[in-house]
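User: Show me a protein chain along with its predicted structure.
Assistant: Here is one chain, sequence first, then C-alpha cells.
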Amino acid sequence: MDISVNTISAKDGTEILEIQSNGKVYRMNSAYRPHAEAEKFAGQYQGLEEGSVLLVFGYGNGIFPRALRKVCGEHTPIVFYEPEMKVFDCIDNPDLLQRKQEYLVTPEKYKESEQYYPANQFPRLLEQLITYSNLNKVVCLALPKYKEIFPEAYKHFHELIIYRTGKLKSNIATAKNRGHDAVVNDIMNLNQLPESCCGDSFIGAFPADMPAIIVSAGPSLEKNVQDLKRAKGKALIVCTDSAVQYLLRENIAPDMIVTVDPIKPLQRFEDERIDGIPIVGSTDMNYRILEKLPHSKVIFASSENTYVQQLYGEAGHDIERLESGGSVATLAFSLCRYWGFSDIILIGQDLALADRQRYVGQGVLPSDNKRKLLEVEDIYGKTVYTPKDYYSYLKWFEQTIAAHPEIRVIDATEGGAKIAGTEVMTLQEALSEYGELDFNFGEYMKTVKPAFADAEKKEVNRQIQDSKNKLSLLLEKLQEGIALSEKGLALCRQGGYGQQVFQPVDAQIQEICEYYNGLEESFFVQREIDATCLEEFVGLFEGEKAETKRKQYTNLLKYFEILKNAVMEVYNIWNELSKSLVT
C-alpha cells in the first residue's frame, strides 16, 4: 500500500493524525474535539465484565488508547494491534504502555520489552491472554477508519482471534468426546514408561544439514511416494499414523511413526511390518496400539501429565506438552522443530480435498456439499475446497511457520492448499538440494537407552503401585468429606449456633481438600472431571461467593460427590494397570 502519515492541528490545538492511503486522505481524529470523541467511543466499553480481554485494531496517536485505559481499569488486559509502523514517526507517546496489562503488536517489534510483540508473535500472545476461563469475555474492536484503511490487516487480525477462540471451543468439545479415553490411555501407558525413551534424548541428535520429511496421507502422496526411497538415510522420514499403511504398501519403511489420537483405530496398525518401527507420540496415545507392537520402541515426546513429568524429571529428563494444532501432522512438525531440525519438508499435506478424497489410496467421500466446505487457494493459485478441521490445521501451520522464520519449510506436497510461508517445489527438487548422508536411524535407535536405568525402573513401578493405595485412601477421605458436608447442613437446619460450631467441621474439610490438592494423582482425577462433568463442577465455585453456610455445605457436598465418582473411575483403571506391572 502507498501510505503516508503526518499530523495536523485540531481546532482546540491538539495534534491529530492524518493518514493518506492510495490517494485518499483519512483524518483519524475529530478536527474539533478529539479527546471528547475518544471518550465517547471508549464509553461503549465502560464496565466490562471482570476477566475480559480487550483486543483493539489500531493504536493511532494514543488519544483513543488513553480513553480506553480510563474506562477499562487496571486489571483488564488490552492489546493494541497497530498495522502501520509509520504512525510512530509522527507522534509522541510518553505514556505508551504504562500499565502492566497492556501490549502493543506491530509489524516489527517496536521496543525491547515483554509488552511489545512483532506481528508474527501475535498468536502466542493470544494463547497467553485468551484461556478457557475468559473465552466468552473477549472483546474485539477497531479504532475509527482503521478497517477501511487496512482491510487485509484487519482480516488477518480478526482471523487469528477467531482461530484462538475456535481452537479452545474445539478443545472443550474434544475433552467431552474423547477425554475419558485420554484418561484411560494416560494411566494404561504408565506400563510403557520404564522401557520408554523420552523425547528430550533426541534433541540435537541428528546431523545439522539433515532435513526431516513429514509424510501425511493426503491424496497427492501417490505422486511422489517413490521419491521417498531416495530420501532414506538422507533425511529423517517421519510418518503420520494415517500414512504408514500406504508407505508399506509401496515397500517404504519410515524411520518412525507419530500417533496422537486417543482413539486411533487399531486397523491402521494391522501390517505386521509396523512392529519394530519406533512409535512417537504423547502419553495419552491409544495404549492398545503400543500393546499391539511389542517390538517397537516407544518415544514419549509430549505430555501435559504432571504425574509423568515428575517421574521423568526424577530420572533427569524433561517432557512438556508440544505445541499442536490438533492433528498428528502438526504434532510431527512441532516434534521436528523441538529436535532441532532447521529444514522440514512436507509431503502428502494437502489440507484440501482432491476429487472428494481425504486420504491417499481410499475411496471418494459419498457426496460432499460444497456449502459445508471452505474455499482456499491451492499451490497453483486455483480454488480448492477444504473442511473446517483442515482449515484450522492450515492456519496453525501458517502461524507457526511465521513465528519461526529460522526454520525453512518446503511444501513438496505437489498439490493441495497453499501454506503461506513455505517454499513450493517437488520432492525430487527438494532432495537434490541436500548432500549425501548415510544416517541409519534404525541403527542409531539401538544406541539410545531407555529413560530409566534398571534400578529406576523398579522405583517407577513401585511408585505406580503405591498410587493405587493413595487413590484408595483418597476415596475414604472423600466419603468422610461427604459425611462432614452433611453434618454441616444438619447444623444449619438446627440453627441457633454461632460460627464457632462450624469451625471443627470446616477444619476437617480443609484437611481433606489439601490432601487431594497435594496428590500428583489428582491430575488424572481432574482430567476425568473435565471429560464428564466440567460445567457442573466449575459451576459450583463460579459467581458470587456463597453467602450462607447452608449454600457452602451444599456446594461442598456436590463437590465431594463429583470427586468421589471421578476417583472411583480412575481407581478402577489403575487397578487394571497394576495387574500388568512388573514389580
